[in-house]
Amino acid sequence: MEKTSGKPNVTISNSGCEMNEQDKATMVMMTFSNLRRVSFCEVILWCGYGGTYGTSGLNDPKDSCPEALYKGLSNETLAAQYQVKSASLNPPRGRRIWLLDTLVIPASTTVRDFNGLKAHYWGQVGPGPDGEPLKLDPRKLQYKPLYFERNSVITFEKGKPVFLLDDNEGTTWVYKNYTTAMDPSLTYEDLPNLDKRLKELPAGFKFRTMNLDKDLVIKAVDGKARIMWDELGGSWDALDPGVANYVP
Hints:
Elements: E1 2-3, E2 9-11, H1 16-24, E3 27-32, E4 39-40, E5 42-47, E6 49-54, H2 67-71, H3 75-82, E7 86-90, E8 96-98, E9 102-108, E10 110-114, E11 117-125, H4 138-141, E12 146-149, E13 153-156, E14 161-166, E15 172-179, E16 206-211, E17 216-219, E18 224-229, E19 235-238
Parallel strand pairs: 2-10
Antiparallel strand pairs: 1-3, 3-9, 4-8, 5-6, 5-7, 6-11, 8-15, 9-13, 10-11, 11-12, 12-18, 13-17, 14-15, 14-16, 15-19, 18-19
């Protein structure tokens, strides 16, 4: 991990909403590289919006979300500990595995310690349509695009595989990370045949995979990225006009 400021300070706070605001103020652009096949996870503290803390670049370089630490967290305990309306773990079980290679994103220089799992603030997600905290359940969010507030640059490197979905409205989506939340047996080696596991793809959606002949670079527009989850909880980014340097 490269960062533009000094060494982060690991801090514990008892007020989640206050903590979210404090950590927003310390955000600087950070570059996280060599992420492909590296685990990560997120802790989300809901204060109207969901203040999101990610583990990338912390804990173990090849396993930024150690399973033993993540299993020790619960939504209910976190909500009580940080005095927030609710808390969410993303993924709700298992872990996420990056499929991109480099991520440039603002993140807080302050590092928070969630019962041993270190994470820094790196964005926020809006509430559900009813104004309540979004239920991060892949079974309820599958194939429903939503916006995540982030100012990011994502790179998939030349010569490496990407996994793509072409939807029925002409948009291509790139697989950003997969999770073991719904299918604990899912591995990186299984991904070229992911369509065999996606039994609920909407009509007209087509899956394909390819090795890139040049870097694919995706930039969030106006501080937002359009994302989508599949039925297994995997996360896809839309290659909307003006977002990607090209569409594979």
